[in-house]
């Protein structure tokens, strides 16, 4: 493709337009159906979506909720997590992971991540659980593992530690729906998995939405109650303190239109990741995919040698009309809202290092090889 034609094909960091063109008629039909039915909350589309999500992940139950954050919160409420509880989570993740324990009165304990996978470091997790036990002030209650950028965390190890310590393992799979580990899709790891359908996630709706996946029928019923104000089997019977965490019918309808494309979109993301690896591997550090893991490639993130190199690459990309993003500029333990909770605890050097060097490149299912080439050339031109 020549430069003029290339300029006519702008590259998006996330592309929701190409997909929408493919399903626009079906979207219009499905949304019109919801408008006609008038069942805007908990309509039949929500039930249909729940059974299809569970089928896709290979787990027994899916519970549609209002966002990924609410999915995390409902699971933690279901475990009774609250004051006096320690919830262990990586320092290098989106803010929602830490916000949820705090909203419930629990204390987040930040854990460092691995320099290769960017996911929670199991040795550091063990050290921090031991330290909390030795202090004797907080009860170790849960680990929230995050599948950062779509890559599954070390779930066999997290599950083992949680079983040994009597803790709950919650999978924050908000960036990773569709990913698998050892042949099992996320949704079957940990006690429950939280999904986000925020528009830029691997499966996104046109607003906020989320879901909880679990194999436990009892927990699924509890989550359904919690998302509807703690309601019992009878309407207006309140069994427990819950919240308003329902998924809108229109968002479920949107997701039902997108789900038939999803399997193929995951393959397209993996193909784009392969093109990047061919061009950038050995020249910049890539996220290392652990053995047995299939990433959902929610984001494609590279590590530059230092902040100055990252700034140069960002500028070269900008000049080439290639959008980039920094996920995340600050580790959570350094955020003004959270740093007091980390006071007195050992440093998190890998999380801090990653924030100074990480850069995310365009990643979506509708990237073609020429576009990946253009992005890679812009990156390499600045090194
Ligand atoms: C997006 C995200 C969430 C929150 O999901 P929302 O649907 O935006 O509430 C939680 N955790 C991680 C890791 C995320 O990336």
Automatic annotation (TrEMBL):
<keyword id="KW-0663">Pyridoxal phosphate</keyword>
<dbReference type="InterPro" id="IPR015422">
    <property type="entry name" value="PyrdxlP-dep_Trfase_small"/>
</dbReference>
<keyword id="KW-0032">Aminotransferase</keyword>
<dbReference type="InterPro" id="IPR015421">
    <property type="entry name" value="PyrdxlP-dep_Trfase_major"/>
</dbReference>
<dbReference type="GO" id="GO:0008483">
    <property type="term" value="F:transaminase activity"/>
</dbReference>
<dbReference type="InterPro" id="IPR015424">
    <property type="entry name" value="PyrdxlP-dep_Trfase"/>
</dbReference>
<comment type="similarity">
    <text>Belongs to the DegT/DnrJ/EryC1 family.</text>
</comment>
<dbReference type="InterPro" id="IPR000653">
    <property type="entry name" value="DegT/StrS_aminotransferase"/>
</dbReference>
<protein>
    <submittedName>
        <fullName>DegT/DnrJ/EryC1/StrS family aminotransferase</fullName>
    </submittedName>
</protein>
<keyword id="KW-0808">Transferase</keyword>
<dbReference type="Pfam" id="PF01041">
    <property type="entry name" value="DegT_DnrJ_EryC1"/>
</dbReference>
């Amino acid at each position: 493709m020549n430069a003029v034609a290339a300029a006519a094909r702008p590259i998006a960091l996330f592309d929701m337009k190409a997909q929408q063109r493919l399903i626009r008629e079906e979207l219009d039909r499905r949304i019109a159906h919801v408008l006609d039915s008038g069942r805007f909350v908990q309509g039949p589309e929500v039930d249909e979506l729940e059974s299809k999500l569970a089928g896709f992940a290979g787990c027994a139950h899916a519970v549609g909720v209002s966002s990924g954050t609410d999915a995390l919160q409902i699971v933690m409420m279901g475990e009774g997590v609250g004051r006096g509880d320690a919830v262990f989570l990586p320092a290098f993740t989106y803010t929602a992971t830490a916000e949820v324990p705090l909203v419930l009165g629990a204390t987040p304990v930040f854990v460092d991540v691995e320099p290769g996978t960017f996911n929670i470091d199991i040795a550091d997790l063990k050290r921090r659980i031991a330290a909390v036990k030795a202090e004797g002030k907080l009860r170790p209650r849960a680990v929230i593992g995050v599948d950062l950028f779509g890559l599954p965390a070390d779930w066999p190890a997290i599950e083992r530690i949680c079983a040994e310590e009597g803790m709950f393992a919650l999978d924050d799979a908000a960036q990773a729906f569709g990913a698998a580990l050892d042949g099992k899709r996320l949704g079957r790891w940990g006690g429950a998995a939280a999904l986000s359908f925020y528009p830029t996630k691997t499966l996104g709706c046109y607003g906020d939405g989320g879901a909880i996946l679990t194999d436990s029928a009892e927990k699924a019923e509890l989550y359904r109650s919690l998302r509807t104000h703690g309601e019992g089997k009878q309407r207006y019977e309140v069994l427990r303190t819950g919240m308003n965490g329902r998924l809108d019918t229109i968002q479920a309808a949107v997701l039902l239109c997108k789900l038939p494309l999803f399997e193929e979109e995951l393959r397209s993301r993996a193909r784009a990741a392969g093109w990047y690896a061919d061009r950038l591997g050995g020249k910049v550090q890539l996220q290392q995919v652990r053995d047995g893991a299939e990433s959902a490639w929610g984001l494609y993130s590279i590590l530059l040698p230092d902040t100055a190199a990252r700034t140069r690459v960002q500028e070269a990309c900008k000049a080439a009309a290639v959008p980039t993003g920094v996920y995340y500029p600050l580790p959570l333990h350094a955020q003004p809202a959270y740093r007091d909770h980390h006071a007195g605890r050992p440093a998190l050097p890998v999380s801090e290092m990653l924030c100074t060097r990480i850069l995310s490149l365009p990643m979506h299912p509708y990237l073609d090889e020429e576009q990946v080439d253009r992005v890679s050339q812009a990156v390499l031109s600045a090194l």
